Amino acid sequence: MTTTDIATLAAPPLGQQWSDLWREIGEWILTRGLRIALLLIGGLLAARFITWAAKRITGRIDAGFQKSDALVRSESAKHQQAVASVISYLAITLLAVIVAVQVTHTLAIPIGSLVAPAAVLGAALGFGAQRLVQDLLAGFFVIAEKQYGFGDLVQLTMGTSGTALGTVEEVTLRVTKVRTSDGELYTIPNGQIIKTLNLSKEWARTVIDIPLPPRADLAVVHRVLNEVCEAALDDRELSTLLLDKPQLMGVESIEVDTVNLRMVARTLPGMQFEAGRRLRLLVVDALNRAGIATTPDSAPTVATLTPEPTGGGVPGVQGPVS
User: Fold this and answer.
1) What is the CATH architecture of 204-303?
2) What is the spatial distance between Cα 218 and Cα 58, in angstroms, rounded to a whole number?
3) CA distances for 271 relative to 61, 106, 244, angstroms
4) Environment class of residue 295 by beta-carbon count within 10 Å: exposed (0-12), middle (13-18) or buried (19+)?
5) What is the mean pLDDT of residues 134-140?
6) How confident is the model at residue 163, as a pLDDT?
7) Does domain 121-199+311-322 have CATH number 2.30.30.60?
8) Is 296 left (phi over 0), alpha (psi -120 to 50) or beta?
9) How much is the pTM?
């Protein structure tokens, strides 16, 4: 009898080999496989719970604003909503790392053997992830310094990419989402924002330039406009938007056929456009009743620190109202 015949007789039959293989697979599924499945399912459920909790918190803050008599959100409420979004993002990231480590441990993959490949991979990815790290750091300082929050009306400058003017809908460590008055949604990486102009931080100012003909009696005009400033706080709708009495600054500029007077007023954050419109109506009506006409080709205009976006703001959040 040859050696081959002896090996053939000593080997278990093919059916026994398949039986042993399926038994090993079954044991792996019931032990390691089941643990990995439970880790993944538990991680997904925990991530869903974190997202649900964050939405519940932000929804409660928004509901409190909707039920209140306030016309704009407080700075603390806007900051709380931004912080809740960031905390949920960090919690989900930490949860993913924990699940990945546990799965690696269950598969009995030695962590020490992964150190060298991970170092090489980290160095390779480091060059490509520079922008990501920059975005995360910039987002951290946006939240920590309270530069803007949910519902703020902002103008973000992105270097050569231009600017984005609209209402903040979401702030995370990586991106800021801004909704324009035309309904367009900008998703801007925080690292690309080089300048932030917040138009709804604590208070705002509306500036009204009133063009008049050179022959107008400025003494009478000053008296009429001062009466408008006094009456502004008695107007039921306008008084809710103003923080104090409008101020007449006097003659702002003199042109060949026009004398421009300027009136300014402090308003609630994000309400400078609506307050400017209502105040302009009072100015025009007062001048008409006093028999003082503006220049033929001009009318009182409302100016702000930045150009006013066309259209209305996002429903439920502060911003320009058409």
Assistant:
1) 2-Layer Sandwich (3.30)
2) 52
3) 21, 58, 14
4) middle
5) 84
6) 87
7) yes
8) alpha
9) 0.54
